[in-house]
Amino acid sequence: MLSFFNSHKAFTGVTSPAQDRTDTLRPLKYDSHAYMEAHLNFRQHLTNQGELMLAYLQESLSQFITDAPELRPFRLASIGSGTGILDVPLVQELQTLAPINYLGIEPNSHQMDMAKAKMLDILTPTSSAQFSTSTMEAYVPNTKTSPFDAMIAVHVMYYSPDIRPMLAKAFDLLHPAHGRLLAMVAADNAQNRLFMETTEALHGFVPYLSNTYRDILDSMQITYDIDTIQAVIDITDFANNPTTPDSMMFLDFFLHMDASSLPPAELERYTRSICDAAEEHAGKLLLPHVVDAVTAHR
Ligand SMILES: C[S@@+](CC[C@H](N)C(=O)[O-])C[C@H]1O[C@@H](n2cnc3c(N)ncnc32)[C@H](O)[C@@H]1O
C-alpha cells in the first residue's frame, strides 16, 4: 500500500495572505533553459503521453503520405518544435515513406540547438530540415519551404492570450487544397485546469485547452476531426515525496511555473489536488493525462 501523501509535513500549518500571492510567483518561461530541463524530465520519465502522441502522429501522417503519392517531397512544418524529442523520431519514420522537407519553428534557442543536432543525425540524403528560432507569429515565410502539406503543433496553444494570429498564419501557409494542421491540446479536465489557474495568476490570461481551441476553429469556420488520447502520468514518487527536487521539477512543468515560489498553503493545495485525482494501479499512482488530437483541414 502506498503511503500516499503521508510525507507532506513540510506544508502543514503555514498560510500566506492571498494578496501576497501574485507578487512572489515566478513563471517558468518557455524560452528558458529551465523550461527545457523541466520539459525533458516530464516527457522522458513521468508521462506516457509523448510516446502515444508520437504513435498517433506517425500513423496519421503515414496514411496521408501513402494516400498522396504526388506529394514528394512531403512538406511538414512543426510549430513549437521544442527539443525534437517528438519531431526527430517522427521525421525518421516518415522519411522511410517519402522524402521529407521539414521546418521547425521554435522560440527557445536552447531547445532549437538540441533539435537541430538530433535531426541532422537521422536525416537521409533526400530529406531536408530547416529551423527558425522564432515564434510562429514572428516567423517570416519562405517560398522554398511552403506551402506545407501538413503542420503539427504539439502542446503549443497555451502560451499566448490570443492564438488566432498564430492559427491564421498556419492556415495561410498550409496548402489550400489538402493542407492540414494536427494539434495536440490538453483536454479540459480538473488536472489540466491547474495550469490555467497558474497561467492566469502569472500572465493575466487563461490558456486555451481543447474545448476553447475548438471554439476558435469553429469561429474561423475551419473543420476538424478529434481523437482523444488517454495517457497517464506516474506520480508515485511525487505523492510519496512531494518536496524532493525531482518532485518540484515535475510540478514546475505541470504548473508552468517555478513551484518553489508558491506560498506553502498553495503548494499543498496543488499537490493535494493532483494526488486526489490519481488512481492506484499495480502499486503505482497514475494521474490521467488526457490530450486531444485535433486535425484541422484548411
Ligand atoms: C510543451 S513544448 C512542446 C515542444 C514539442 N512540440 C514537443 O512536443 O516536444 C511547447 C513549445 O512551444 C513553444 N512555443 C511557445 N509559444 C510559441 C509560439 N508562439 N510559436 C511557436 N512556438 C511556441 C515553446 O517554446 C515550447 O518549446
Query: How many structural domains are formed by the residues?
Result: 1
Q: Provide mean pLDDT, rounded.
A: 91
CATH architecture: 3-Layer(aba) Sandwich
Helicity range of the residues? Answer: 25-40%
Rg computed from alpha carbons, rounded to a whole number of angstroms: 20 Å
**Bound compounds:** S-adenosylmethionine
Number of helices: 11
- Sheet with most strands: 8 strands, mixed
- What fraction of residues sit in β-strands? 15-25%
Describe the secondary-structure layout.
Layout: H1 21-24, E1 26-27, H2 33-46, H3 49-67, E2 74-79, H4 87-94, E3 100-105, H5 109-122, E4 128-132, E5 150-154, H6 164-173, E6 180-186, H7 194-203, H8 210-219, E7 223-234, H9 236-240, H10 245-255, E8 257-258, H11 264-276, E9 279-281, E10 284-297
Helix pairs in contact: 2-10, 3-4, 4-5
The protein binds S-adenosylmethionine.
Question: Describe it for me?
Answer:
This protein has about 300 residues and is of the alpha/beta class. It has a single domain, classed as Vaccinia Virus protein VP39 (Rossmann fold, 3-Layer(aba) Sandwich), CATH 3.40.50. It has eleven helices and ten strands. The strands form two sheets. Strands 2, 3, 4, 5, 6, 7, 9 and 10 form an eight-stranded mixed beta sheet that branches. β9 and β10 form a beta hairpin. α4 packs parallel to α5. The longest helix is centred in the first third of the chain and has 19 residues.
